[in-house]
Description:
It is a single chain. The chain has 4 helices and no strands. By secondary structure, the chain is mostly helical. The chain has one domain (2-93). α3 (53-62) runs antiparallel to α4.
Amino acid sequence: MELEHRILPNFINEIRSMTRHHSNSSRDDDRRWEAAxxxxxLVAASEDGRISIMEKIHQAYKEADYxxxxxxxxxxxxTMDELRAAFHEYRVNVLD
Length: 96
């Protein structure tokens, strides 16, 4: 339950803080932002028939499928590490 009530809300807040910072369109800035945003959406936004990692965790808990919840939690942590690295790469290179 700690995952649903503490860890996921903390991750949501972290993801929401990762916003687009560049205003002038540069191919490199756009590419870096799109890489980070793709991971943000993979983690937290169910769209176009795809279920986010967080939604998969909620569904697994709802169905008492703790193995799937555990597998998704591991995937969540790995993807968050990738997201943090991608956002850092984006943020340190934006000149706007």
